[in-house]
Amino acid sequence: MDDYAGRVLAERYRLPRPPADEYELVETRAFDTYSGQEVLVRQILLPEVVSAEPGDGGDDPGPGSDSASRALEAARAAGAIPDHPRLVQVFDIFTDGGSLWIVSELVPARPLAALLADKRLSPYRAAEIASDVLTALLALHAHGWTHRNVTAGTVLVCDDGRAMLSGLAAGAAQEALAGYNPVPVRALAGGSGGSGSWEGPDSALELERARQARMHLVGPVTERWAPEQATPVHENWQLAPPVGPTVDLWALGSLLFRSVQGHPPFPEESTAELVQLVCAEPPAYAEECGALRPIVESLLRQDPSERPDVEELRGWLRSLVRSAPEPDLGLQTVRVPADDPHKLPIVRRRGELVRKRRQAADPVPLHPSHGRHKRAKAKKRSRAPRSLGLTLLLAVVLLLVATVAYAVLFMPRNGSTNGSADTSQTVPAQVSDGKPKPSTAPATSKAPSHSPSPSATPSVPSTTVTASDLGSDFKLRTDSAGFTVAVPTGWQRQGKNSKGQVRYTGGDMELIVVPGRDSVADFGSDPLAYQSDGEAELDAFRSSAWSSAFGARSLDLNGVSAAEGEYTYRDSSNREVYATNLVMLRGSGYHVVLFVGPTAHTAELKRYFDKAAETYSTSS
Predict the structure, then answer these.
(1) Among candidates 202, 224, 212, 217, which has minimal Cα distance to 150?
(2) Which are the contacts of 428, defined by CB distance < 8 A and separation ≥ 6?
(3) How high is the pLDDT of residue 384?
(4) CA–CA gap between residue 278 and residue 39 (Å, rounded)
(5) Which of 224, 321, 350, 561 has a 20 to 30 Å separation from 245 between CA atoms?
(6) Going by C-beta distance under 8 Å and a sequence separation of 6 or more, which residues neighbour residue 520?
(7) Average pLDDT of the residues of the chain
(8) Which residues pair with 596 in a beta bridge?
């Protein structure tokens, strides 16, 4: 609390004491006395003259004025957007002392502007950040919002490398102060706290006043002045391009240009000059953007209809990130020595090291008899490691002899039908008329057995899991579709549908198994590529406007090529779901194990998935 000895806002948020040479706070940490957590507080000053409507000269700049109430309404509507992993969460919005205050979560991150002050970004690193920002913009556009405030100050780069987007509520408040209405119609109608009748400027004169007020509030920031926002107002102002999601794409292109080139695409000495240039002149040439240059140039086109589609842009950025070269070896990198046995260090026995250290530590004897006793003890200690080594060697030899004796006495001979034979000696499935048929005879048998082996089963995992190992929470199911898997107790089988899926359901959670529907001939032999691009069970994730993927990696499951990943997205019923997926390449087909359920059951789904992945086996 000693760090927060400044003023208290809304009888809740305690600010730090500002330095003597600062008179106003723009953005700072604060301490929430209700929750006991640190938050981030941003101040937006309410100017005296802000409204573009006639008759409102700004005589009352406090919370009761029309401009302040509109800014508060717009900011609260922006703060009501559902949480997203790439959006900074807004906790509270209020007016106090002639200013609008926005309280948001304190993210362990640095603004992109702070990173650019140190050095420029490479095109591939800039593409990574732009991909995260585009994911956040897609979530906003799905709710009908346009951000209008994508800048180097509102993009936060976290400690783990991912990027988050903030500033939506602040940008909405500034747009409202200028006289525009940034809130979508459906957000106003949904009860955001306002009357729902605010429509913004409705004449050429009011629109020009709003444009001039916005120039004063926003300043010379290229990202916030797309040509459709900077176009001069004429009598046919209703024919001007509408302000929509394409302004966010312009902002993203300007941000990429600034990140890689080190300067903005247009000069920013004067707001009026910047507004004229974005409408009349092309941007500076992006000569250092490299592979990112075509994307930047397409985003900075003056005509918003010529800018790329969001999904198309998303694909470009992903391709660019995947093609990034390996990082250069730094000065602090330790190189692995060459595979030369003469250059590798010699590993000595621990007994020798102990013996030498103790001999060096023994003091010189003061009496001959004492010296004899010392030497005798030293000889015993020096023999101890060698005796231990001989003992271990003898134990290993005895163990090998016992193993051979057991194999000779108790293991079955050739032609035996003992059902306890090792499953690794089972004859592989015989193939006739294109269908696999499992064999029940041991591999070493030369004569037909009189009865099938009771333990002869199809291929099993390397670590055999029995029903007793699963406990009461799981049941080992052998499905008629040709696979065996552990299913949570009480889940019901729904049968195999027309898509080749076998479904097991338990409440609002579901297990989907696809036993070899898709072949290598159609989808290639890379399980990770199949999972990311070809697997039909993840189509809902790919088509969702709100989605995220993590943990995607290739695996080797006991010689079986596989891939796994975790996904969150909104399904067809707009429900936030979590999915954990395993793809295995068995034979010439892909086998899929997929658990899907609400994000509230993520821990349960992970536990179910681990058990299913451990026990899944097929009959061929």
Answers:
(1) 224
(2) 439
(3) 52
(4) 37
(5) 321
(6) 585, 588, 589, 590
(7) 79
(8) 510, 579
Nearest CA-CA partner of 75 in 242, 206, 193, 221: 193
Report how far Cα 347 is from the mean position of its chain's Cα atoms. 43
Question: Tokens representing 533?
Answer: 């691009």
Tokens of residue 42, six digits: 């941003």
Confidence bin at 436 (pLDDT 50/70/90)? very low
Count of H helices and E strands in the chain? Answer: 18, 21
User: What does the alpha-carbon distance between residue 108 and residue 363 come to, in Å, rounded to a whole number?
Assistant: 58
Question: How is 87-125 classified by DSSP, letter by letter?
Answer: BPPEEEEEEETTEEEEEEE--SEEEHHHHHHH-PPPHHH
**How far apart are alpha carbons 619 and 41 in whole angstroms?**
61
**3 state SS for 362-390:** CCCCCCHHHHHHHHHHHHHHHHHHHHHHH
In the chain, what percentage of residues exceed pLDDT 70? Answer: 73
- 3-state class of 602 per DSSP? helix
| 618 in Cβ contact with 513 (< 8 Å) | no
Record the tokens describing residue 242, joined without a space: 């509408």
Which residue(s) pair with 13 in the sheet? Answer: 9, 32
Burial status of residue 210 (CB atoms within 10 A of its CB: 0-12, 13-18, 19 or more):
buried
**Residue type present at position 314:** R
CA 279 to CA 254: how far, in whole Å? 14
Picking from 77-81, 346-350, 441-445, which range would have the lowest pLDDT averaged per residue? 441-445
pLDDT tens per residue, range 546-581 = 788 877 888 888 888 999 999 988 888 888 899 999
Confirm if 79 and 89 have CB atoms less than 8 A apart. no
- Give whole-number Cα distances, 70 to 75, 183, 196, in Å: 9, 10, 11
Q: pLDDT tens digit string along 94-106?
A: 998 888 999 999 9
Give which of 505, 524, 523 is closest to 513, Cα–Cα.
Answer: 505
Q: Which domains does the chain have, with CATH numbers?
A: 109-165+219-323 (1.10.510.10), 467-618 (3.40.1000.10)
| Residues of the chain above pLDDT 90, percent | 41
pLDDT tens, position by position, 457-499: 333 344 556 655 677 888 888 888 888 999 999 899 988 888 8
The pair of structure tokens assigned to 534 is 């070809």
Residues 6+ apart with CB under 8 A from 558: 461, 462
Angle at 608 between CA 571 and CA 540, to 5 degrees: 15
CA distance 29 to 5: 12
Amino acid at 467: A
